[in-house]
Description:
By secondary structure, the protein is an alpha+beta fold.
Amino acid sequence: xxxxxxxxxxxxQGVELTGYLALDSLPRLRAAVxxxxxxxxARLSFGISDEGKRVLDGRIEGCVNLICQxxxxxxxxxxxxTIYVGIVWSEDQAKALPRSIDPWIVGEGQADFYDIVEEEVxxxxxxxxxxxxxxxxxxxxxxESAEEVGAKGPRQNPFQVxxxxxxxxxx
Length: 171
Ligand SMILES: [Zn+2]
């Protein structure tokens, strides 16, 4: 999938872009997840809406690893996001859009498609993640501090330490 292109031209031509985006090419998302594991698939359809506006209609799917706030081990998070934005190049044009369409203000020329995909995925990431199953026995969880539980994990890294500082579980 190309990283950049002219979204206005694509809308006129009804271009559809699909493909996988490497996590390493999305630095802000990469910084928000545990490791480089996971994948992001995007389908971006450019076109003209019923109201005659240039729009981007997109669907993003994939998975990334977050930190489980209970056991501080990685937990897989499934990504399923949609994008529906009007392609405009000024604030005035953004205001002229129907209320149902959020503006995507692009400058002259080429826009960065990875950027809007990354933005949407980041918006949809949960604040805290947990394993679906009970990964830490309740009684152990309540009798030990988060630090002790975390120290038992084999994959101690600075990110996890930061998570411990930020997210001390409630007793
Ligand atoms: Zn867990």
